[in-house]
């Protein structure tokens, strides 16, 4: 019994890492707000990216942004700019930087930092209102960031 | 304006709950065809750097939600105020006294809600209305204090708001209250939680914009307690603050905490000049 738990845990931990090339949030290098290198070395999947963007418990990007391509997802917000044509306006590296930590590109931006794990004030345990304990997970995983960027690149 | 009964309005509201209902931002609020409510006015001087005008949350709600507040028979929050009136007149505690024994009819308290939170010289602290009511309960009635934002406390607050409706919010921010006001202001502009959002990000920079299915208001508290169609009860301002901070993925503060008392004073002061309109109706 005990042994299975340990094996399972090791397996899950391994999956969480995605692969050896994953860049941890603290190790990301930004250049003028952009991140040149893939966070995982695995190409992003735009279909998964669209799901992350429109799902409330994931990126929930549509809370603030309208995207015509995702018009069948209800309730797009208007806090941030329309994302149509984002893949035209920005390079892949710039989009990776914006999604990972928009404050590097837009100083003081209201947009949350999706790949950041420190510097928070009164960090909570998700939406419980209670204090966070233990290791901090970024809002999105490295691969989810790559998937979102891949989707944004399709918005030409 | 055609009137309909509160229950009918509630049912209708829940059917349209899924659609984004846009408000008529130019509508004016007159309650019972009699009490004129200022829902939009020039920002108080201390806010003039940030806003030109301050607006009640009423302006941002759908026509249907707005109309529920126009007649006390349609306003489910008035049931709480009615219960508050009963509590007001009922003796409690070791002294065998009711609120009415010292204060007379609730109408005698007109104007009180408009100036709270307020500095209490004897206690040397800023007090919210609920804190003051609990002080009366403990020290004059010999009764147990009510839990913060709990139903009896909220119903009596709703009663006291209702008799001040139409009067301008006018909380003092200088003198001995200034320290708490500064603290509240700091909280208002702090970007809490993993989403790193401050009250100002949503309610100062983005009022009028949709955030997902919600039409952002200025987050004013002149309408508190508010009856929310979403949870079908009267809600206190501190409970609302708690929810908003929780939604930034932050460790929130508790209703009645010194942080929320300070924040209530600061947020109330942002609405100086708007009318007291609680108990109000919101979604």
TrEMBL record, chain A:
Q: What is this protein called?
A: Sulfur oxidation c-type cytochrome SoxX
**Keywords for the protein's UniProt record, in alphabetical order:** Heme, Iron, Metal-binding, Signal
Is Iron among this UniProt entry's keywords? yes
Q: Report the Pfam families cross-referenced here.
A: Cytochrom_C
Q: Which residues form the Cytochrome c domain?
A: 44-156
This chain's source organism reads Aliiroseovarius zhejiangensis
Give start-end of the signal peptide: 1-20
Q: Which domain of life is it from?
A: Bacteria
Sorted alphabetically, which PROSITE patterns does this protein's record hold? CYTC
Automatic annotation (TrEMBL), chain B:
Is Metal-binding found in the keyword set? yes
EC assignment: the record states 2.8.5.2
What does the UniProt entry say about where the protein is found?
Answer: Periplasm
- The first-level EC class reads transferase
Report domain Cytochrome c positions.
79-232
Q: Which PROSITE patterns match?
A: CYTC
- Principal cellular location given in the protein's record: periplasm
Q: Where is the signal peptide?
A: 1-23
Reaction catalyzed: L-cysteinyl-[SoxY protein] + thiosulfate + 2 Fe(III)-[cytochrome c] = S-sulfosulfanyl-L-cysteinyl-[SoxY protein] + 2 Fe(II)-[cytochrome c] + 2 H(+); S-sulfanyl-L-cysteinyl-[SoxY protein] + thiosulfate + 2 Fe(III)-[cytochrome c] = S-(2-sulfodisulfanyl)-L-cysteinyl-[SoxY protein] + 2 Fe(II)-[cytochrome c] + 2 H(+)
Q: Which UniProt keywords apply?
A: Electron transport, Heme, Iron, Metal-binding, Periplasm, Signal, Transferase, Transport
Give the family from UniProt. Answer: Belongs to the SoxA family.
This protein's assembly is summarised as: Heterodimer of SoxA and SoxX.
Q: What is this protein called?
A: SoxAX cytochrome complex subunit A
Q: What is the lineage of its organism?
A: Bacteria, Pseudomonadati, Pseudomonadota, Alphaproteobacteria, Rhodobacterales
> What is the primary gene name for this protein?
soxA
